[in-house]
Amino acid sequence: MATSIITPVGPLFGPDFVVVTANDETGREYSLHVYPDAMNHELREAGLPQHYYFQPSRVYLARKETSPDDFDFGMTIFKGLMTDESTLGIDPGQTDGGSAEVGGGFCAFSTTFAIPDSVIEDARRKIRDQQHTPPPGRLAQLFGRRAGGPEPLLGIVPITHSDVSIAVPDLVQAGTEKVPMMITAAGTGKGSIEAHGYNSFLVTCNQFAAGAIAGALQEGKSPFTVYDELKESFYVNAVTIKVTVDVAKMYDSFSAALSTGGFLGISSLAASYAYERCRTTGGITTEITQNSAALTPELEAWVTQNVDEMRKTAMELVKTEIFDWQPTPDAPATADRGWFGSLFGGSAVSLKGKQARREVKLTQELKLNRTITVTHRVSGTLNDLEPAVRADLDKYLSVIDIGQWFSKLQVAGTCAVNFGEKLPDGTDLRDPIRSVQMQVSYPDYSDPVRADGSVNLVTRAEGFHYTAGQQDRAAPAALALWSEVNPDDIVNVAFLRLDREVPEWPADQVRVRKTLVYDAADPRVDLDGGRSQVVVERTGTDHAPILDPAEVGYVFVHFVLDRQLPKDNVTVTLTVSIGDRTDVIEVDRARQKNVVWELFSDKYFDADEMTCTVEVTVAGPSFTDDPVVWTGEPETFPVPVGRLKYLNPFKLSLPPAPAEEVARINAYIAGYPTT
Q1: How far apart are CA 639 and CA 646, in angstroms?
Q2: Is 230 within the bounds of a domain?
Q3: Cα distance between residue 278 and residue 351, in whole Å
Q4: Is 508 left (phi over 0), alpha (psi -120 to 50) or beta?
């Protein structure tokens, strides 16, 4: 009789875990919350490695990849003292005591929720030797290995989505009308889902707020807190949830976050707050059972609070009752709104008027018997920076005199091309671009208008190169070109700013020409007409252009298999097509977490679907064993129309194994040596 393939399915759902205390090479202690795989008992009985998963517990300040001893943090204070005699654009009416003073600052840094490899290995050994807190009863059979059994495996809980935010001091309340304080912050919005969990932030301050932040930094303190709301995958079996929503109470809860009839520019974090309000006010009630038996209070509370399908089921019931929404045509990409935005497919959404509020209750039953997504929020400060700042403040704080620049209009270009990133498993994430060049045009200050009335533009292809926190003022101007040798450069192109109006050309307007030179030998490049060079030109008031390949056309699909490949003898071949393009992707156990399909092309703007065929191969433990190969039917999936097609993650189901081959497949896997 055929039996199912035994393979890990993911961490077992619920609030129960064990605590494993491990140390890095410096002796620093970490406490990891570790969940067992739901199939660990079966894996142990089959003689296969048991799988365990640790959950990120906090956010840390990241270190620089190129300088691991230094933190990825830098603050710049800029200040200037200008007079009407020495600086263009300053007149006596703007000065106080004969001079005009200006100052401010910005701070850029990156965070991570990664755990050092040495800690993971120490924790894995302690799991093997059962040196951890006793597992709760429902987990007991999922811990412990047989004598002489294979080594257990430990990795991070699978993360499918990440929303990041940053909290900064409310210095507006600390300032006065004459001495105001202003501070704003921007982050990546959609965070990393890889194990490193890198996210970057930019904090901007006016003069007085910059002084407060720099003073705190000088004392080794950083008053920022970073939050990361993660969507994590857990395995659940035979759970039934009866969800009842009170439409009127749901309306009242969301109206607290939105103005009636206003545009719903709500983030996942704000929507999560409104959802929690619904739960506490009786807007959402649930009845939860597993295998027809009631759950323990702790387990029921965990499911109600964390399971993403719970949120979506409740919102699907009321989205037509309390929201007005209409699909919108293709528009420029905006920040992702996470689980809430996915309910409406990127549509414009507004709350219905008060007159539409209805006193009605709706009920739906949700059955969970698969991998589910739960919400987990982690946070952290930057206090790890304190010893490093006290040891070398100049490494993390730069002071720049900008007085000389105020007589000029500046364009500060940065490059967002990934010239060389590789993941630990060898996955190449670099963009297939050899170089990017910027040219900036602006009216000639001395002769801005030609005799025929047209604007007399001066084009400059050179600028002053520097990096954040490091400048060489004696350096000459150089070509505004980025490549793998200077990807982090900021290139400043300056002009004398117009001091009189020019017809059809505002004084702050510039023309930026971007030239991207692609690697024609890279198979991911598929430009119309076989070109290897693309020119993009923009005219506007953006003085901080970012040069990246997204303006040309980009397809990114991160495939996630519905199960993990258990051993090296199991491989998967994906044949993926879009338009007239077909690619073949080989997947093995080492790279199954980073199966990425990328195209850099301007040919598929109108494509609205892709086709994928999945083939599975299982090799035998002996060289002469005939492999078992089976192929699923080609499947067609929708993709967004437009310049950017970004699907992350995109889950693929493996085709079912032939019934007559299941026994041989299991024997091949069990007999294949574990590496």
Answers
A1: 8
A2: no
A3: 16
A4: alpha
| Whole-Å CA distances, 283 to 101, 261, 274, 299, 480 | 55, 21, 10, 21, 57
Domain assignment present for 227 = no
> Are 304 and 286 contacting, i.e. CB atoms less than 8 angstroms apart?
yes
pLDDT digits (tens, 9 = 90+) for 368-416: 666 777 777 878 777 777 787 788 888 778 787 665 545 677 888 988 8
Q: Is 555 helix (H, G, I), strand (E, B) or coil?
A: strand
Neighbours of 584 (CB within 10 A): 10
Q: Which residues of 56-92 are buried (b: 16+ CB within 10 A; e: fewer)?
A: beebbbbbeeeeeeebbbbbbbbbbebebeebebbee
Residue 175: inside a domain: no
* 0.70 exceeded by pTM: no
Q: Which of residues 551, 573, 593 is at a domain's end?
A: 551
For residue 649, say if its preceding peptide bond is cis, omega within 30 degrees of 0.
yes
Backbone phi and psi for residue 568, each to the nearest 5 degrees, phi listed first = -70, -15
**Domain presence at residue 162:** no
Using one digit for the tens of pLDDT, what is the confidence trace for 318-330? 666 666 555 444 4
Tokens of 500: 């009189």
- Cα 469 from Cα 64, distance rounded (Å): 14
Q: Nearest Cα to 504, choosing from 551, 466, 450, 549?
A: 450
Residue 529 region by backbone torsions, left for phi larger than 0, else alpha for psi between -120 and 50, else beta: left
